[in-house]
Amino acid sequence: MCQLLGMNCNVPTDICFSFTGFQKRGGETDVHADGWGIAFFEGRGVRLFLDPQPSAQSPIAELVRNYPIRSLNVVAHIRKATQGIVSLENTHPFQRELWGRYWVYAHNGNLPQFRPALDGSFLPVGNTDSERIFCWLLQSLRQRFGNAPPARDALFAALHELSYPLAGMGIFNFLLSNGEWLMAHCSTELSYIVRRAPFNMAHLKDEDVMVDFSQVTTPNDRVAIIATQPLTDNEPWVTMPPGSLWLFHEGEAASHRITQPGPKKSLGGI
Length: 270
Hints:
By secondary structure, the protein is an alpha+beta fold. Helix content is 18%, strand content 34%.
C-alpha cells in the first residue's frame, strides 16, 4: 500500500526533516516505487510537486528535500499502485477547488467495489479509485452545504459521516486539507506526533539524520506530523485507532471521532 505524510502547524514551517526520511520509503527503505507527490499550502495558493518516478531516486524530491518551503499545511504521498497505471495523472496528492479554496487529498488504500455516481461537478482525470473517491467526497459536501462553506464542526461531522461506511469496504486511510486545517482518517494504519516546547532531539528511522528542534524553533511553535508509520525512532508517536477521523488545526489535534467501520453498501451522495 501507499504511505502518507502530513504536517499542520501554528506558524509556517518547513518539512525538510520529515520529508528526508519519507523520501527514502519510495523505493529504498520500502517498496512504494510508483510515484510520489507533495502539496504545500501558501496562503490561498498551493505549490504542488508530482513525479511518477520513485521518490528515492527523484531529482524533484531532492529539490523538495533541500528547499525549505514554509507552510501551515502539507500533504505528501508515495505510491504503491493498486488501481490505475503508473502515470502523472494517477500520482497523488490530487487537487480541486471548492467554495473558492483549493482542496488537496491523498489516499492510502484500496476500495475496488466503490463506484459512486458522479454528477459532473468533480470528475477524475486519471483512473484510480483514490481520485474517484476525492471527487465523490467534494460532490457530496457541495450537495449537502450548497455554495456556502459550512462551519468547521459541521464540515467535520459531514466528513465523518461520509468516511466511516467506506472504511467497511476496504482500506481507506486519507489526508485532506483546504489550507485552514488538515483532516486525517485512519482505516488501518496512521500515527501522529505533536512537537511543542520543550523541544528535543529527533532521529529518523529511514536515514541516520538527527535534528535538535530546540535550535530551530521558538517556544511558541507547535507542529503536528501525521504519517502512515512513525518517521522517527526516539519520539512518542500516537497510533490512531482504526475507524477514526482527526482534525488538526494550528499544530494540534483539535477534534477526533472514533467509530467502527460501517456495513458495506453503495453510496451515491449524502
